[in-house]
Amino acid sequence: MAAKKTHVALLFGGNSSEHDVSKRSAHNVFDALKKDLYDVDIFMFSKAGILMGKEASLRIWNGENEDAVVAEEMAKMDMSNVLAPIAALSDIKDIDIFWPVIHGNLGEDGTIQGLFKLLNKPFIGAPQTASGMAFDKELTKRIMNQAGVRNTNYVLVTPENKSENDYATVAAKLGETLFVKPAKQGSSVGMAMVKNAEEYDRALADALQYDFKVIIEETILHPRELEISILGNEAPKASKLGEVIVPESDAFYDYNNKFVDASGVVFDLPAVVEPELEAEITDMALRAYQALELKGLTRIDFLVDANGVPYLGEPNTLPGMTNISLYPQMWEVSGISYSDLLDKIIEYGFAEFERNTKISYDFVSLGDEHVGEKRYNADKA
């Protein structure tokens, strides 16, 4: 008798700028999952964050016009029902584990992970608190500074303190060339490199459309861009390094050459680096992973200055799985095939769920309520 296959719910899409990237990643994951081991159902979150049912998701998956299918499904929904955005969960039967292939908002900010916890179901990747911390670039920097993991200096700008942080003030602290980034967005969305007050004001206004927290970072001029893949739970392992070499005409590794047109980008796999630098980056990455309490998988980006000093850029807790994406490619050159890598990620998801079942919750009855004497001091009111 054949062993029962593991039933995987593959979730993709979402209300983020990386919606289409998620669709590409999901197709790659689906194709690489071993069909003799897994039954896979697919479910798409619309661009408005509404979960589509199994049939509608499959229609979009197979190439029908997404906007048309979503409009058709929305017309059937009773949006006065508070559970309407996730009502399609009723289509999901006997799921063993959830795999969110959702980049950016909803997928990496802890939202979907909180839902999985409420459903009491295993899922791959970091738990909700760790996801939320890692998604917030400013919180990540605070935790890295506490953990002693080197990263670039920055200033936090909000609508409330914007007037105190004009270009001249920030440039005096961090240098004339600056990076402006929304704290909670992915893949270069709302991000800009600026060199004067006019560019700064324009970039800040743009970034504040995407988040109420914006970090202004010092710039490392002409850095090497190195990346590393991490896999595991309490005892994570690191891959060999990969290097991204962008065309000289591009200021930095932006959304376009990450996901749209990478024809001018060179990927060195594995990266050719000095053993000491590789060891330092690996150590920094593993310490960051554990300080953020990440689980399952993460890609971590680094910048290396002209003196060979590495700075942690940011973690990506649900890294891209497209043909351009480096997370699986770095494991490929480290000796783990794409399909075997997915097996391991799923194993770590089950292991983390099982580990959490051992946490004890005591429920103590309060009994009758006994209230102490209350004194009202009129002269102090």
UniProtKB/TrEMBL annotation:
Entry binding sites for Mg(2+) 1: 301, 314
Domain ATP-grasp: 141-347
One Pfam family in the UniProt entry: Dala_Dala_lig_N
GO BP terms: cell wall organization; peptidoglycan biosynthetic process; regulation of cell shape
Free-text remark on how the cofactor is bound: Binds 2 magnesium or manganese ions per subunit.
SUPFAM superfamilies attached to this UniProt entry: Glutathione synthetase ATP-binding domain-like, PreATP-grasp domain
Subcellular location: Cytoplasm
Active-site annotation: 18, 187, 325
One Gene Ontology cellular component: cytosol
Gene3D superfamilies: 3.40.50.20, ATP-grasp fold, A domain, ATP-grasp fold, B domain
Substrates-to-products reaction catalysed: 2 D-alanine + ATP = D-alanyl-D-alanine + ADP + phosphate + H(+)
UniProt entry keywords in alphabetical sequence: ATP-binding, Cell shape, Cell wall biogenesis/degradation, Cytoplasm, Ligase, Magnesium, Manganese, Metal-binding, Nucleotide-binding, Peptidoglycan synthesis
Residues that bind Mg(2+) 2: 314, 316
UniProt pathway annotation: Cell wall biogenesis; peptidoglycan biosynthesis
Classification via InterPro entries: ATP-grasp, ATP_grasp_subdomain_1, D-Ala_lig_Van_CS, D_ala_D_ala, Dala_Dala_lig_C, Dala_Dala_lig_N, PreATP-grasp_dom_sf
Cofactor(s) for this UniProt protein: Mn(2+); Mg(2+)
Gene Ontology MF terms: ATP binding; D-alanine-D-alanine ligase activity; metal ion binding
E.C. number: 6.3.2.4
Homology family: Belongs to the D-alanine--D-alanine ligase family.
Chain's role: Cell wall formation.
Protein name: D-alanine--D-alanine ligase
Organism: Periweissella cryptocerci
